[in-house]
Amino acid sequence: DAGVTQSPTHLIKTRGQHVTLRCSPISGHKSVSWYQQVLGQGPQFIFQYYEKEERGRGNFPDRFSARQFPNYSSELNVNALLLGDSALYLCASSSSGGSTYEQYFGPGTRLTVT
Amino acid sequence: DQQVKQNSPSLSVQEGRISILNCDYTNSMFDYFLWYKKYPAEGPTFLISISSIKDKNEDGRFTVFLNKSAKHLSLHIVPSQPGDSAVYFCAARDPGTYKYIFGTGTRLKVLA
């Protein structure tokens, strides 16, 4: 089975622009979470979606938004990009069923804002 | 506030010996804990997890111990191998907000 996939792999944008990052979860997984990771830090939680509904939101400004589609894939949108948004953006999927809560990560999208 | 802390930024261990990575947390409501391994330019890879109702979980060379009274968990790798060299993150799940909160990571280097 394919793991979590993300696109694009790398992206360079200019301050003030908008960006859309995409994620396809593991087949059968209904939950997708987004994280931002900057150098030297652990992943910081941005959003979690389950069955197309937002279930959790981290401490990120309203410039960050996301959505989940009927096929459980997801998009993360960031408006009015700032230099500080440069980071590795990670998507993780989980089945969110049963008694285990493992999340499986994709390879990430490296965003550079200039 | 840092709810999940990994106080050792780095650790070096000889091949074949035990590696012990530590993690402390502050929120007693966390219900699930996970360990991930991360290589450069890759996403974190899930290693092992433990529910808050257990105190030990084992999977091959990896064992996670949870001490709820001390709000402390540890990952033991026995025996350590050079391929284990990576950054290790612990994470905790907050059941109230569905957030997974990560520590800052410990860089493990296994020396051949």
Describe the structure.
- The complex is a heterodimer of chains A (114) and B (112).
- Chain A has 114 residues and is mostly beta strands.
- Chain A is 0% helix and 50% strand.
- Chain A has strands at residues 5-7, 10-13, 19-24, 31-37, 44-50, 53-57, 64-68, 74-78, 87-94, 104-105, 109-113.
- Chain A starts with a strand and ends with a strand.
- Chain B is mostly beta strands and 112 residues long.
- In chain B, the strands form two sheets. In chain B, strands 2, 4, 5, 9, 10 and 11 form a six-stranded mixed beta sheet that branches. In chain B, strands 1-3-8-7-6 form a five-stranded antiparallel beta sheet, with no helix packed on it.
- In chain B, strand 7 (62-67) and strand 8 form a beta hairpin.
- Chain B is globular.
- Chains A and B meet through strand 5 and strand 10 of A and strand 4, strand 5, strand 9 and strand 10 of B.
Radius of gyration of chain B: 13 Å
**Beta strands of chain A, count:** 11
Shape of chain B: globular
Largest sheet of chain A, if any? 7 strands, mixed
Order of helices and strands of chain A: EEEEEEEEEEE
Instruction: Report the sheet with the most strands of chain B, covering strand number, pairing sense and barrel closure.
Output: 6 strands, mixed
What proportion of the residues of chain B form beta strands (DSSP E)? Answer: over 45%
The greatest interface here is: A-B, 26 and 24 residues
On the 0-100 scale, what is the average pLDDT of chain A?
Answer: 92
Assembly type of the chains comes to heterodimer
Number of helices of chain B: 0
Total count of helical runs of at least 4 residues of chain A: 0
Order of helices and strands of chain B: EEEEEEEEEEE
Unreliable runs of chain A, pLDDT <50, ≥5 residues?
A: none
Beta-strand percent range of chain A = over 45%
Kindly state the percentage of residues in helix of chain A: under 10%
